Amino acid sequence: MMTKTIFACVLSVCILSAAPQGARAADNDLPFIAPKTVAAAPYTVELTPGAAVKIALKGNTYVLTSEFSTIPGWAKLEEQAATGFNPVKVAGSTATAETASFTLKREIRKQPECVEVCDTLTNKSGENLPVIIRHQARLPDFTSFRLGGRKIALKRAQAAEPQNPTTIVLTPTGSVGLLALDDAFRIHVLNYGLNGVFGVADQNRVLAPHASTTVRFAIFPSDVSDYYAQINAMRRFLGVNFRIDGGFAFGGGRVDHEKNNEGRELLNRKSSLEDFKTFIGNKDAKFCPSSRVERYKGKYAEGPDWLMVANADFYKEQFAREKEAVPWVQTALYFSNNFYAAEDGKEKYAECRLMNPDGSQADYRDPNYPLWLAIDGNAYAKDLEKTLDFIMFTVGTDGVYWDEFERSAADYHFGDPWDGVSADIDPQTHQITRLKSSVTLLTQPWRLKQVDRIMAAKKYLIINGAPTTDSMLKAMANYKVPRFTETGSITNCLGMHLYSPIALGDHVTERTDVDCYRWMLQALNFGCVYYWYSDQVVCHIHPNLGSYMFPITPVELGEGYIIGKERILTAKSGLFSFGDAAPVETHFFNAQGVETPKTLPTVVKDGKTYYKVELEEFESCALVRKDAQ
Amino acid sequence: MRKHWRGWKTLAASAALFLFPLLAAAECTITVTSDPAMPVANLVKNPGFEEGVTGWDQFSMTAADGVTDAEAHSGKFSFKLIGQKGVNKGIRQGRIGPQEFNPPIPAGTPITVSAWCKSVGMNPDGGACSLSGTISYVDGTDSYITTPVFPKVAHDWIKQTACYVPKKDVKWIDQLYGALYYDQAGQAWFDDLFMAVGKLKLAYKVACPNIKSVRLYSEERGLLKDSGLLAKGTNAAEGSIESPILLDHFIVQVEDADGNVYRERYPKEEPAFAKAAEGETPLFDRFPREILAAGTTESYAATLPAIPAGKSVTLELKARADSENIAGCAPVLQMQLNGKDVTLDKLVERKARFTFADGRDNPVAQGIKVFYLYYAPNFFPIDPQNPYFPTDIPRNDPYTFKFNVTALAKEGKNLFTLQNAGVAGKGSAMIVEGAKLVIR
Fold this sequence. Notes:
Chain A is built from 9 helices and 40 strands.
């Protein structure tokens, strides 16, 4: 669940972070880490007589069967034969099948590192047709598995993480990854593992009368038994290794001379130029949105109600001072599309309410903050567009910071309009219990339009949270929009593994620049780079690890490090290479995050220059290509 | 009369004495009565199996099942059931109480059942380890009643209590299944069954100069009644509660304007406190465990001996947020010792973060002074197949906390404050056991 980006009260705290890998290892224990040579996986794939997908790779065979609910019972595509279908015809890479209520056309597409499976289902009836869909493989010799990126220590588990809709299973000789692809499948996704059977399911799919839908997913066979090898293959397939231009920090927007609990003044428009330079410069925050959220009649005003109190001159003055102090900084203001707390909401946006199953309006766990649906053309969406215009053109920022972009505290809307694909389905009877609508799917057309508008205005956009649909992922990757995850729980980084691997700092526990540095190391444990969060923290250490993080074009993520085209960042010991012999400058940081001169020995192996990085607890290293400066 | 640290006095009292405030002696009289008088009669015959199986029918037994002296919660005996796959076994007693209740038990009258159980080797996917019971209504129909259910994990002696409130007049209590072990593995022991019908009306009267406050505590439920700050010069107070009849113990605690605290236990028996080992100073002397509702604070005094040079003082306790099932964790536990916060940097043996079995990472504290407690129904080990099973906490025990409080503790009087940081009226109760200061 994404949280709102708001300023928290300050407490003095010292982080006791779990140490990243950093114990010194003997030379022959240090791994050689360089970008893998990407080649098409030498697998073979076929549709079996039962239209299951059979993949063979270096002595391993994986058979993925599929099940589709019918009323009653199931129709299954299995290895030897299909059941419940009448009949199944397999011809090369396609298969057709039919039940009393729907037709199925299956097509498998061989990609360099995966098999893409496309199942087009067509409802033969004039009624809404519920279909529970499961795709699974039996892997009894598995050694470990992850659902949604999380390593599971249970015999049976499930996860529903649209931002990382993966089931990844490691065996002694390889691995298999399942990735839900189409928009509805990602939103509905259920990744599961049950006593050696692993799969990906959609338990909420509905076909409208006579409608067709194509359910897409991908199977990643690999002879490498490693989660990050799977994730990197998926990242290449999705095309999300785009350049992340610069650093980020929330800053400013405080009322004049506002102080924190310790009596220190927070960055505001009356701050000195020196304070602006220190704050922004030491965080290397190319992108520095003001996160100030104002109140209207005592309530936070984060939607169109903000315009009732927003003062453009207030922000213009601050941004002018920021640019005077730091000419390269890119300004932005906070934007959110889920809230309107003013009293007249129910009348003004009567048709835009986000509804609970019981007929009440959903809220942000507080009835003072009801939730609304920004659907293209409705009154709420139109007024939000005015808010965006205010930010981009009245204040004239360089960009927009968009919070809770995919959805807020409610996943589903129970009322009109219907998204056309979602329902609660009874697991026993397979009948529809009730229709429901994904907030993400309902608002997606409008959000895509606004993204296009922002890009057309040549503004930058940074977003809280990973994409949860294929459509949004493609649009975002095309525009190279950086998105991050909040890290109240560091395992949230797993949600960024299929997009821009960026961790926002943890504002609850970070109180000093050393705390922030150590959280950077936690983020690197998940292969993520770091964006600064709390404006309560002024960084006095410069340069710091964050100074060398950007720009970065991810090539590979790993546990403890990230390899980019321009730089390698690591919190783990190893012999690191860019895969060539290009000259590199090295930056070593001690346990307090202070850069300390250190010469790294090199080893040349197979024509590649490896830099020997040996780290103690809380130490880290950045290797930066000189030709990337 | 039990002596405590200065300012705490326990008096035996059986009659109310009216004291004029002009009397010099600081006598404080607390009278507690109940209807029915406690201990309340138990409707179950031979509830602890001290008479063997007298009064009990058995079904699906093997030679290994039955009354045993190898384990007992109290007395010498308990009833043992060995798990067998596909076999539902148990014991039952028919017509609990009179053959027929005359007059009938009125609708709305609570029927309370409790039992103690210990188990090893249970199958979490197996059948129930529980009690069961049926009643017949005056109108000729019958129904099951709510009865205790025990967790399907290995556990030491645990008491479970259930209360059923019939909506119609009850003619008789058909039968009580005093021990059920269905399609299970391992073995379970049952002891000290209890059943009662009706409500307990408990009343107390206090006569004491300059009463500041009067509180009523229950061992099973925590603080039941709080007078709040009474007006200056209050010399008498009284109160009452009404609740289902439970196997419970009560304390009426009176504090006067000088800070003296007086207590009266009801019934008078002392609860079974764990014996303190050398170097240990227990912090709880009211009950072995403390129950704090969300948003409440309690303070406890303890006297430490001199702390030898080179020794450390550790604060140790077990804590959970009360819940029917294991359900994650929440920031609940907050503590002070001698007015200073017990903070994250003092935590020993545990790291600042831990991981659930489903892969999610969690902090052990919110900020530096509010600690996350597991939602749990008891302190027993969590099934490794539970998604909330903590994979990287020592002994996989998320309930035990130890803090090095050497810098906060002192020789002599120490004041320990517990706070349930949950939202009053919304958060769960916090259960704390075994709180102690240890010098080692």
